[in-house]
Write a structure and sequence with these properties.
Length: 317
């Protein structure tokens, strides 16, 4: 069965999961993690994205962010392509680093934002890397320490996360920590690791209860949210696809758009394609004009004689 197209809705909340191929490591040491975060921060800043949670484990990573106008694909493609090349060079290896393509779940922000933030930041405790909240507060490879003020990442929107708990920072941090502690007491919940009907409704018991009542819910494995949310997202995606299809059928290609714009601006397409040559030519013309001006003003440094001087003329001078 072919995989479904990614739902890349700009401005939507996406839970991104990246895993190493065959569960192998994608981070061997702290340097790998530092370089990954440096480029991730630059890419989300350039893409005008809002990051709310993240964690780096040895063989996988979780990221929760709201995409900018370009969507998530451009940001993640640049990040993962660069990192795979960096990792292979540094560790003297070849071949694929990541397992298939990264997984992205489009989430209902209103109902799932804070639950996913907590789910992501509790990963090190669930994996047994650390055991207590005190250790989590000092754990450097997740966004949790930034939210409580123990670290600073300019590209992470910690203020938005804290605003969900109160308007005053100290109280908001305390409420956030209490919320995370409550999560430690709960059993591991796979709801936030994907989408689909079962996860969106909160388990099979809720699905069966809805069926007994004759309730039908829209669902999609790429989306975590209510039936109404899923319906709205799919409708918007369908409209966007139809719009793109109409453009293709109308024969509106990049080449045609370039041709039309060049005609409007009275620009030759060859000059547009060879912009650097045109700039060099214009630069040479300006240089020649400057030299001619210097001659007129009597600047000996740039003086040019139109006819060769004879010996007699030289002696007269």
């Amino acid at each position: 069965m072919p995989r479904q197209a990614r739902l890349d809705a700009p401005g939507a909340l996406h839970h991104i999961m990246v895993r190493g191929i065959n569960r192998s490591n994608i981070f061997d040491d702290d340097q790998d993690k530092v370089r990954f975060l440096e480029h991730f921060g630059q890419n989300v800043t350039d893409g005008k994205c809002f990051v709310y949670a993240w964690v780096l484990m040895s063989n996988h990573a979780h990221i929760l962010f709201k995409s900018g106008k370009e969507g998530i694909s451009a940001v993640m493609r640049k990040l993962l392509t660069w990192y795979a090349q960096y990792y292979n060079r540094r560790h003297n290896r070849t071949g694929h680093l990541f397992e298939n393509r990264y997984k992205s779940i489009l989430c209902d922000e209103e109902n799932y934002l804070m639950s996913i933030v907590r789910y992501i930041h509790l990963n090190p405790i669930r994996a047994g890397i650390i055991k207590t909240m005190g250790q989590l507060d000092r754990y450097p490879w997740s966004g949790h320490c930034a939210i409580i003020g123990k670290a600073e990442y300019p590209w992470m929107d910690t203020e938005y996360v804290l605003s969900q708990f109160g308007s005053k920072r100290r109280k908001a941090v305390a409420e956030y920590l209490r919320f995370v502690r409550e999560g430690m007491k709960q059993k591991h919940d796979t709801t936030f690791s994907g989408g689909g009907l079962v996860r969106s409704l909160g388990g099979w018991s809720q699905v069966l209860a809805a069926r007994r009542k004759g309730q039908m819910e829209d669902a999609d494995e790429r989306i975590l949210g209510s039936g109404d949310f899923v319906h709205a997202v799919l409708k918007e995606a369908e409209e966007r696809q139809l719009s793109q299809l109409k453009l293709r059928r109308s024969g509106c290609t990049i080449a045609k758009i370039i041709e039309e714009e060049c005609t409007k601006a009275c620009i030759n397409q060859k000059e547009l394609r060879h912009g650097s040559r045109r700039k060099r030519k214009e630069g040479q013309v300006l240089k020649n004009k400057s030299r001619e001006k210097s001659v007129i003003n009597g600047d000996s440094k740039h003086q040019v004689w139109s006819t060769p001087m004879t010996k007699s003329a030289s002696r007269e001078i």
